[in-house]
Amino acid sequence: ERVKKMIYTEKSCKKFIEAAASKEPVPGGGSVAALAGALGTSLGHMVGALTVGKKKYADVEDEMMELMKEGRQLQRELLDLVQADIDMFEPLSQLYSLKPETDEEIAEKERLMEEALENASEVPLQIMEKCGRAIELSVAFAKRGSRIAVSDAGSSAILCKAALQAASLNVYINTRMMQNRARAEELNEICAIRMMKYTSLADEVFECVSNQLKKGND
User: Fold this and answer.
1) Residues 82, 27: contact at Cβ < 8 Å?
2) Alpha-carbon distance 212 to 135, whole Å?
């Protein structure tokens, strides 16, 4: 079980990219989004690591350490979601290949499909939640972290934004096929709220950092 669960996050970068680029169904867009989000959180953590221990930033050291702790946890959770997305898609892909013949078999497939589609939607919603929080952390890293790493704070925000946007598409591709339209719209609304809140925040961080860096060349 341990080997199965961790197989994709234990691959080299090259092997993971090759697997994602292949015609195999996994890892797919959700897993790649989770990995991109984990990479984004790592850049935020880097800002903290370059801030802590410096006399110039002694007044924000405690805050940085707390941000780094939470960022590290988000990174672990996003890496777990790489595999979770794969695990949730596998039963769905198996259902696609089923060819029911009797009315009972058709009804059972529809029931299982509905369950699998909702489960497959929940993982990218979790990815969005984690990436959204990572974007919030990037605000503090950008404002109060070491100036030599401010570009990394901006990169953290924008990478997590891209991961969040990619994850949203993996919500919508599943909810569009759900028969329970009321539940599908609930999931879509959660997705839309997170998109609206966090993409604008990430853009603000990016613009702030970009402007700071450009001013340095004036």
Assistant:
1) yes
2) 18
Is residue 68 a contact partner of residue 48, using CB atoms and an 8 Å limit?
Answer: yes
Task: Give 174-214 pLDDT, tens digit per residue.
Answer: 999 999 999 999 999 999 999 999 999 999 999 999 999 99
Residue ranges in the chain assigned as alpha helix (H): 2-6, 13-21, 29-51, 61-96, 103-144, 150-175, 181-215
Mean pLDDT of 74-97: 88
- Taking phi over 0 as left and psi of -120 to 50 as alpha, with beta for the rest, 53 belongs to left
Task: Give the global pTM.
Answer: 0.90
Cβ atoms of 156 and 134 within 8 Å: the answer is: yes
Report the distance separating Cα 81 and Cα 90, nearest Å.
14
Q: Which two tokens stand for residue 83?
A: 């595999």
